[in-house]
Amino acid sequence: MTVRRTPYLIDVFPGTEPTTVQGAVAAMRPGRWLVAASGGRDSMTLLHALLAARPAEVVAVATVDHGTGAAARQGVALVEEACARAGVRCLVGRVNRRTAATEAGWREARWRFLRASAAQVAGIPVTAHTRDDQAETVVQRLLRMAGPRGLAGMSRSDAAAPAPATAIVRPLLQVPRATVETYATRHGVAFVEDPSNASVRFQRNRVRHELLPALERAHPGFTAWCLELSRRAADWRAEVDVVVDALGVSQPSPDVVVLPVPAVAACDVGAWEQLWPAIAARVGIVLDRRGILRAARWAPTARAGQRIPISGGHRIERTARTFIVRRGAEASGTSVWSEDYIEG
Prior knowledge:
Layout: E1 3-5, H1 21-27, E2 33-36, H2 41-53, E3 58-65, H3 70-86, E4 90-94, H4 103-121, E5 124-126, H5 131-143, H6 148-151, H7 177-186, E6 190-192, H8 203-218, H9 222-246, E7 250-253, E8 256-260, H10 269-281, H11 289-298, E9 307-310, E10 314-318, E11 322-326, H12 328-332, E12 342-343
Helix pairs in contact: 1-2, 2-7, 5-8, 5-9, 9-10, 10-11
């Protein structure tokens, strides 16, 4: 709940390899970057590094007030202050607590706002997820018995390679959290300490503070194994995405993806089990195992005018010539953030 300013140290941050903050930022291809910043240490460090090395490429910063208390307000205020000093546009979203009152709802609100902001400024979203975040995500997916797509975790796009407009770039994904902390200390990066990060009420915090350290002690190298598993799963997922691209999918809006029926006329249930997660991911939908199986069994015999709900309140529709995947918020007409949408 308190704003902390790390002490400024004179010595230069060592190294330029991609596992350092500066090296990761330097490895990013030229682009128009929309930086997602919460006011926490990792995101404020990424924002600092990008503004220091590539200020002309930062087109805007997006931040969300979840309405959860003082820490959330302080985080937004800190981001706005940093943007004002740098002369960078700041987009602020405020969560509608009537429609997003859970951790999952807050996460949904953040991603919807980030996608909408990216479309508004024609920028590619950049987040500050670290190597440790990736390992924690893989452990959470293992606990849910996720398939290969889920086990890839956040390994979706390479910051050094061309990326589509809908990509999420995570330049710090190979950078340890401790290295980010060192950068923040050495450069006097101000950040907000959110007390909820220490609460084991949330699964990610239990994984971070209890489960993953215990597994590493019991099986040294377990974290590295999780990261290698995610890399191999990401390679597999990339191959499936190439297949989906070849099917001629289109995305007329951030919440809708359309697949032509002729391209998938010969697909059986097994093929659909591989395709649906990749297609739904185009609009940010993560299907659970039940949802995948249900959609895969339905698709081969679906007729025009039929539809099925899928996990999270989303749905798939069959028309005469297409399959359409719609995100739940668009289908219901309910926004997960309030009308209090502020541009700096």
